[in-house]
Amino acid sequence: MTLEAIDVHHGYDGETVLEGVSLSVPSGEVLAIIGPSGVGKSTLLRLLALFDAPDRGEIEFGSERVWTGSQQRRLEFRRRIGMVFQEASLFDATVRRNAEYGLRVRQSWIGRLRRELSALVGMPAETIEAMEALETVGLQEKANQDAASLSGGEAQRVAFARALAYEPDVLLLDEPTSDLDPRNTAVIENAVLEAKKRGIGVAIATHDMHQAERIADRVAVLLGDGVIEVGDTETVFESPADERTRKFIDGELIY
Amino acid sequence: MSLASGLAVLTPLVVEFPFEWNYVRSIVRVSLYVSLTAVALSTLVSLPVALLVGFKEFRGKTLLTSVINTGMGFPSVVVGLVVLFAISNQGPFGSWDLVFTTEAMIISQFVLAAPVITGVSLAAVSSVEQNVRDAAYALGGTRVDVAIVTIKEARYGIATAVLAGFGRAISEVGSVLIVGGNIAASDGTSVTRTLTTAIQLEAEQGRFETAMLLGAILVVLVLVVNAIVVRLGNGGGRYG
Ligand SMILES: Nc1ncnc2c1ncn2[C@@H]1O[C@H](COP(=O)(O)OP(=O)(O)O)[C@@H](O)[C@H]1O
Ligand SMILES: [Mg+2]
């Protein structure tokens, strides 16, 4: 199931950010989106996550146009996408409740009411999927803690588990590790590779070139107002077709 | 004077006037019925309005915001006057026969409490981070789910809003006196007499002991409702 941007144009208040961007996120593959800060990586990921319709161009999911369909259909599409932001943005609740959120909103109102009531009398329903997702990031023991008690790295790992729990077809990660230490970064990167193994398509915006080299199958370089180059990770890093790519990568690798 | 010594002073009064208890109980019942109903209705209206004003752009938003802000400090006698006119024979709702009823008192307390609850809730929901709302949406939530998350994140502030609204409703005298009429039935029990209007009447007629007992009950009621709402706010911790 491929999520795709086709000749997408988008901007804010008349300022163009993306001009004619085409990019696909196929199943079972990790795509790194690299580019300088402010170039439009987040804008592109938000379009792929169906937050807003692009000013021009199409977003397609499984070759079906998303924005020409009904709102109900769009909700179905959105529910096959998971997204993690730079900040964990956890809900003020337990770790388990956070991990279950995506599953909960997919239930009927009756089912949700029943769960709320049983949680209220101290018998929360076990959610196997949510616990498995927490296990993927090594936090199953913290399930009953308050999210507020976690460290920044742990919180981001929960945010990742929260997006993984409902088994999306596509995961969109917006600089998920840029505030994290190496150990927590490694946990997230392993979880990304784990997701890929399960057939999930992953797009990860990052300005960490080493991270792109470590986990990405393909790399898209976003410079100016568009994608100037897409290719195998090795090709893009070793022998880029575009001179600007080499300059950007060399410049970033200095850090 | 501490609470304990205050109660010590009041205890003999209660013992001396055992016949007052039906009277007192009926007043408490009317007060609670009117104020709790008014606050519940206000909350039902105020939360959606606060979410709308907080997160949507629409025509008349500036006007609505200034109506809310003005309403928060609106004098209760004026509200009573306007409500009385609206439900009087000359008014648009004259045929509903609401003058000097608890329904009329609920209406005027609704008008008094709603702006307070809306205004304080608005501040609370506005402080919920956009990141958290985005996360709910990205995880497959609908607009309604995002609204629910926002209310849950803002629950302490909303509890404060409800408390402030209840405080304003149960402790005001002006409007309930005007639209309710401070009426007691022939057996002496309250029809539209609330704690505040009863205190005013008892004090005016020189029955200070009864007035003070009613005053103490009013304070205890406000404290109890405070405690319950704060507890509810804390208990909402396990959600998502
Ligand atoms: N909601 C918004 N309103 C106005 N401008 C925005 C908004 N979001 C992003 N921008 C602008 O769009 C450009 C691209 O931003 P962004 O997509 O966040 O870049 P990146 O994620 O690559 O750092 C920036 O110039 C930014 O200021
Ligand atoms: Mg960004």
How much helix, percentage-wise, in residues of chain B? over 70%
SS class of chain A: alpha/beta
Task: Give me the side-by-side strand order of the main sheet of chain A.
Answer: 6-7-8-3-9-10
Mean pLDDT score of chain B, rounded?
90
Q: How many runs of DSSP E, i.e. beta strands of chain A?
A: 10
Global Rg of chain A: 19 Å
Largest interface: A-B, 32 and 20 residues
Please give the CATH class of chain B. Answer: Mainly Alpha
Question: Mean pLDDT of chain A, rounded to whole units?
Answer: 94
Approximately how much beta-strand content do the residues of chain A carry? Answer: 15-25%
CATH superfamily of chain A: P-loop containing nucleotide triphosphate hydrolases
Which regions of chain A contain 5 or more consecutive residues with pLDDT less than 50? none
SSE diagram, text form:
The complex is a heterodimer of chains A (255) and B (240).
Chain A: E1 3-12, E2 15-25, E3 30-34, H1 41-48, E4 56-61, E5 64-65, H2 71-78, E6 81-84, H3 95-105, H4 109-120, H5 128-136, H6 152-164, E7 170-174, H7 182-197, E8 201-206, H8 209-215, E9 218-223, E10 226-232, H9 233-238, H10 243-253
Parallel strand pairs in A: 3-8, 3-9, 6-7, 7-8
Antiparallel strand pairs in A: 1-2, 1-4, 4-5, 9-10
Helix pairs in contact in A: 3-5, 3-6, 5-6, 6-7
Chain B: H1 3-16, H2 21-55, H3 61-72, H4 76-87, H5 102-126, H6 130-138, H7 143-153, H8 155-171, H9 174-180, H10 195-204, H11 208-235
Adenosine-5'-diphosphate binds next to helix 1 of chain A.
What does this structure look like?
Chain A: Keywords: ATP-binding, Cell membrane, Membrane, Nucleotide-binding, Transport. The complex is a heterodimer of chains A (255) and B (240). By secondary structure, chain A is an alpha/beta fold. Chain A is built from 10 helices and 10 strands. Chain A has a 6-stranded mixed sheet, sandwiched between helices. In chain A, strands 2-1-4-5 form a 4-stranded antiparallel sheet, with helices on one face. In chain A, helix 3 (95-105) runs parallel beside helix 6 (152-164) and helix 6 (152-164) packs parallel to helix 7 (182-197). The two termini of chain A are 36 Å apart. The mean pLDDT of chain A is 94. Chain B has a single domain (18-233), classed as MetI-like fold. Chain B is 75% helix and 0% strand. Chain B starts with a helix and ends in a 5-residue tail after the last helix. The mean pLDDT of chain B is 90. Classes of the chains: A alpha/beta (255), B mainly alpha (240). The interface between A and B is medium-sized, with 32 and 20 residues.
